[in-house]
């Protein structure tokens, strides 16, 4: 009786100690994450973590110079020694169809909301089961692992990535395994190079630097910066050069003016220093906005999309400050492209209109000119692209600063034909509907002389809607 009581007590104590260790590991992980966020300057995210978990992390300190970076590095070296290659820690999930569609339509990316808030830490908490996610691969249990080792002749093979993209390796005590690093053995870097080139070949979306590191600004400016990041900054315009039909000359000029200076900066110095301001002008609907977006996509620059409505009406009185913060932010996130759409409505000639111009609007225009001058004097990779349908209405001082002007004209006959066959191909499948089109493309191209790209798209849409 005495003995069994003793054994129950011991088992209980062991279980309690185990639970405490798990609890403390969980808490430590959160503290490390908090510390990492603070170090990287993601202050808002760190505060949100504190709020979500209801723990004041500021009361804790990370000891022994440890941080998430070090932990990850050590895990990588452990993995390298064990499997002679570096672990693949994350992988990109296939994009859902709707978001791909939204992006191809040029819609703004909505922030991912699928992330659940972190669970509050308390002793009764158990991690929620992933009810919604169907596991495709069952967890590898020790028995399977031992079997796998047996089949591999003692060599433990790298585990398959799980559906969450994390390589979770079962730890197998395999003292004599071939996979283990021998003393003095040279590390083969091929795996490392392979991994690095694999990750480079995958186009990555640029990480926007945390705003909290945007120093030298007071809180009002920071608020404006947050507004710009939310409303004006466009994460990925997703327009490729090939999406633009025709406009070969305009594409070549834009590439020369913006793309090459970013790719080969050593060539563009002195008199060859890149153009700071570019004006795309021509009739409406000819692809000026598409060209600007293609620059941002192909060069992977941070893209700020400004229109008259976003800077003039929304923050009346604040427009001047907004312009200043916008340029500061563009420098901070360089290389960046500031795209001013419908420039004539932001920068019409000053002093015209019988002196009825709003004081705030005049101040905003002056600020824009001053900021563009500042850009011209600096080496920052910030490009101002402007589009206008009415270039003769632009302020002369602004025109002077837009050094390079590119005419984006109406599409040629060949381009019109390519557009019609792009939007109404001989056999197309539109949203699950099969469209059988038998068109005299050449004849349509002739009949649509004087149409813009946008007009031709509308004609095609109208025709497709008819049946
Ligand atoms: P704007 O010159 O007024 O800025 P946009 O670039 O916004 O014109 O073009 C409006 C729409 O017209 C685009 O979304 C696109 O569907 C179509 N479009 C116009 N020109 C072209 C082109 N060259 N290639 C492909 N689509 C075009």
Automatic annotation (TrEMBL):
Annotated ATP binding sites: 282-289
EC number: 5.6.1.1
GO molecular function, a single term: ATP hydrolysis activity
Catalyzed reactions per annotation: n ATP + n H2O + a microtubule = n ADP + n phosphate + (n+1) alpha/beta tubulin heterodimers
Gene3D superfamilies: 1.10.8.60, P-loop containing nucleotide triphosphate hydrolases
Domain AAA+ ATPase: 274-412
Localization, UniProt: Cytoplasm, Cytoskeleton, Spindle pole; Cytoplasm, Cytoskeleton; Cytoplasm; Cytoplasm, Cytoskeleton, Spindle
GO BP, sorted A to Z: microtubule severing
Region (Disordered), start-end ranges: 1-20, 116-137
GO cellular component, one term: spindle pole
Keywords on record: ATP-binding, Cytoplasm, Cytoskeleton, Isomerase, Microtubule, Nucleotide-binding
Entry-linked Pfam families: AAA (PF00004), AAA_lid_3 (PF17862)
Residue ranges with Polar residues bias: 1-13
Family: Belongs to the AAA ATPase family. Katanin p60 subunit A1 subfamily. A-like 2 sub-subfamily.
Role summary: Severs microtubules in vitro in an ATP-dependent manner. This activity may promote rapid reorganization of cellular microtubule arrays.
Name of this protein: Katanin p60 ATPase-containing subunit A-like 2
Organism this protein belongs to: Oncorhynchus mykiss
Gene transcribed to yield this protein: KATNAL2
């Amino acid at each position: 009786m005495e003995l069994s009581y003793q054994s129950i007590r011991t088992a209980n104590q062991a279980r309690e100690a185990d639970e405490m260790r798990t609890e403390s590991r969980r808490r430590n992980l959160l503290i490390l994450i908090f510390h990492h966020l603070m170090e990287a300057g993601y202050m808002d995210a760190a505060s949100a973590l504190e709020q979500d978990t209801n723990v004041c992390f500021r009361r804790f300190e990370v000891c022994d110079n440890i941080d998430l970076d070090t932990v990850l590095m050590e895990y990588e070296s452990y993995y390298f020694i064990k499997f002679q290659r570096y672990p693949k820690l994350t992988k990109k999930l296939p994009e859902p169809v709707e978001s791909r569609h939204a992006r191809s339509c040029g819609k703004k990316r909505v922030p991912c909301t699928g992330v659940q808030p972190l669970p509050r830490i308390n002793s009764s908490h158990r991690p929620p089961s992933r009810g919604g996610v169907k596991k495709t691969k069952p967890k590898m249990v020790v028995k399977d692992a031992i079997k796998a080792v047996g089949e591999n002749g003692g060599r433990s093979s790298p585990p398959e990535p799980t559906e969450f993209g994390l390589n979770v390796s079962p730890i197998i005590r395999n003292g004599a395994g071939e996979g283990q690093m021998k003393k003095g053995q040279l590390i083969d870097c091929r795996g490392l190079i392979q991994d690095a080139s694999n990750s480079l070949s995958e186009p990555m979306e640029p990480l926007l630097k945390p705003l909290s590191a945007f120093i030298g600004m007071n809180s009002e400016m920071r608020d404006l910066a947050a507004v710009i990041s939310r409303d004006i900054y466009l994460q990925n315009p997703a327009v490729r050069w090939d999406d633009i039909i025709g406009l070969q000359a305009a594409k070549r000029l834009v590439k020369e003016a913006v793309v090459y200076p970013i790719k080969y900066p050593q060539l563009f110095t002195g008199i060859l220093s890149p153009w700071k301001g570019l004006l795309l002008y021509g009739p409406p609907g000819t692809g000026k906005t598409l060209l600007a977006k293609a620059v941002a996509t192909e060069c992977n620059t941070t893209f700020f999309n400004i229109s008259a409505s976003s800077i003039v009406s929304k923050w009346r009185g604040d427009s001047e400050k907004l312009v200043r913060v916008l340029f500061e932010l563009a420098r901070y996130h360089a290389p960046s492209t500031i795209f001013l759409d419908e420039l004539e409505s932001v920068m019409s000639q000053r002093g015209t209109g019988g002196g009825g111009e709003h004081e705030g609007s005049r101040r905003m225009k002056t600020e824009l000119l001053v900021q563009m001058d500042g850009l011209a004097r600096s080496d920052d990779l910030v490009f101002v692209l402007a589009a206008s349908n009415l270039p003769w209405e632009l302020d002369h001082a602004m025109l002077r600063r837009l050094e390079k002007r590119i005419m984006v004209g109406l599409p040629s006959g060949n381009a019109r034909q390519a557009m019609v066959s792009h939007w109404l191909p001989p056999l197309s499948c539109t949203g699950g509907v099969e469209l059988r089109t038998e068109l005299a493309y050449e004849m349509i191209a002739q009949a649509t002389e004087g149409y813009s790209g946008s007009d031709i798209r509308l004609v095609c849409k109208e025709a497709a809607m008819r049946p």
